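Quick one, tokens below:
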């Protein structure tokens, strides 16, 4: 009897254990008929939410500002006196000392005369007087006259200046050794500012990028006062406005120069000259 009771109890225990294992296998997520089983370790792993990578913030690149060229005023890049000059030609107040940049092929004693010749070209031949204007006064040429020897002034230069003042022209200006521009620089180009004025070049260089070759010199003893003949090629550019492309440009004017220099009151001055001007060329404005 006792053995039957023990056997019956053992059977009940086996049935209960079997039901518990079957429950875990049939409900891997721990629920039966919608009821949640507490503290049940399930075999299905709930996926961990993947962190979302934020999209990079793209900052729009600002479009470059468009620099509009001004036909009424030359650009600030040419505001310095003789912009584009050689470094050796240093500013001294309101003038340029050209001599340190002058190279001479000839006797060493001719260096000062060669420097005076180069200074005449870039201080006077290429100057603010080159800009077209309605009329000129003799006083406009006072600085030029100081660079001409007294004898040459009396015998030739003064009469040439009078002819120019009465009827200004390019040819009459060349007779003075100067570049005097008339009207527009060329088809499709104009000078800055109102016509026949210097307003478009206020606080700006009229001429830029001066260049010249080695000065060839020789001494001339054919006259009572010794003279020095200086020959070289030169060029300079004047900022102008390209009306077709509506942008800054420049006109380059080359020259071939032969100046006879004479010492006058302790200074070398122009006694005579032969200057030839070749046709100008045009290009985009660029300061060296």
């Amino acid at each position: 009897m006792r053995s039957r009771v023990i056997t019956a109890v053992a059977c009940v225990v086996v049935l209960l254990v079997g039901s518990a294992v079957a429950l875990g296998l049939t409900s891997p997520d721990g629920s039966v008929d919608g009821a949640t089983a507490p503290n049940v370790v399930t075999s299905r792993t709930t996926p961990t939410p993947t962190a979302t990578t934020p999209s990079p913030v793209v900052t729009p690149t600002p479009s470059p500002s468009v620099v509009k060229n001004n036909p009424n005023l030359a650009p600030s890049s040419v505001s310095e006196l003789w912009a584009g000059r050689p470094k050796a030609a240093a500013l001294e107040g309101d003038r340029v000392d050209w001599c340190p940049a002058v190279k001479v092929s000839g006797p060493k004693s001719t260096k000062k005369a060669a420097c005076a010749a180069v200074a005449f070209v870039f201080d006077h031949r290429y100057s603010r007087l080159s800009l077209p204007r309605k009329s000129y006064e003799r006083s406009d040429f006072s600085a030029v006259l100081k660079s001409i020897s007294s004898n040459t002034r009396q015998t030739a230069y003064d009469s040439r200046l009078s002819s120019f003042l009465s009827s200004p022209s390019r040819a009459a200006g060349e007779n003075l050794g100067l570049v005097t521009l008339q009207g527009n620089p060329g088809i499709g180009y104009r000078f800055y500012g109102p016509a026949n004025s210097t307003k478009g070049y206020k606080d700006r260089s009229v001429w830029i990028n001066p260049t010249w070759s080695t000065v060839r010199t020789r001494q001339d003893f054919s006259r009572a006062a010794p003279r020095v003949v200086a020959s070289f090629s030169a060029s300079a550019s004047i900022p102008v406005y390209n009306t077709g492309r509506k942008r800054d440009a420049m006109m380059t004017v080359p020259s071939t120069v032969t100046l006879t220099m004479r010492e006058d009151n302790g200074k070398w001055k122009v006694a005579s000259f032969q200057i030839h001007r070749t046709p100008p060329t045009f290009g985009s404005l660029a300061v060296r």
